[in-house]
Structures are given as structure tokens and as C-alpha cells.
Amino acid sequence: MHSLNLFRTRFAEKEITVEIPFETGGQKIAADDEKLAQVVQNILDNAWRYTPHGGHVRISIEQTPRTLEAICANKSEPLSGQDRSLIFERFYRIDKSRSREHGGAGIALAIVKEMVEAHGGKVGAESIDAENRIWFTLPA
Length: 140
Description:
The chain has a 5-stranded mixed β-sheet with strand order 1-2-3-5-4. The protein is about 35% helix and about 25% strand. It has about 140 residues and is an alpha+beta fold.
């Protein structure tokens, strides 16, 4: 939750509401805390950049005895099939013309993928019910 606290001011500046429908302090996972914090920060930064002013971000955690899945969802332009397949590649930008508007170099989600996979997990992106979701799973 420390990572989310770092972003509260940034979300507030854009009047983005953040919904967190889970209790913290649940299941433990074997992961490098610093790398996991970087994963969460990169995903939150992506949500902040691409959620419009006055938008909404939902962060959820689903736990099973074997896995932990984290999902960050926001309402934004839907991701195309090509975008979903390339979004975790280094330097890939969804819309090159938006680079100046949103900033960034297009490596944050590639770093997310590398770090999650180094911990034995998986990452993905999807557009469902008018929201984009970036998710990752880690073994418990």
C-alpha cells in the first residue's frame, strides 16, 4: 500500500478516484519487496497517465492458496488486440502522437513484465466492459 500512498497526490491532482475493494495484510508471497514495489509503482503510473481527468481507477487483489492476482483497471480508450499483445514490449507506445501528452519512454510495463516473470508470475492486459485492465499473478 506504500506505493499507492506515493500516488495519492498525483491521482488527486487529476481528480481521479481510486477504489480499493480489499483488505491489506492478507496472503504472503515470496518476492523481492523492492522489485514488487517497482511493479506496483509502474502500473499505478501507467494508470495515472492514461486515466482522463475526473476518471476512476480500481485496484483489486484476488488470492487463492496458490496465487495472488493484482488488477489495476481504468476507463480509457479501449486497447486494441495489437496493443494488448505489444504493450509489455520495450519502447512500445500505444499511440506515438500521445507521447508528448502523456510522457514516458514506453518501458515501464516492459519492466513490470520482466520483474513479474523473474518471480515466476505472468502479466497481461485486456479491455472488458469499457475498462482497460493491467494484471499480474504471482505464485503464493
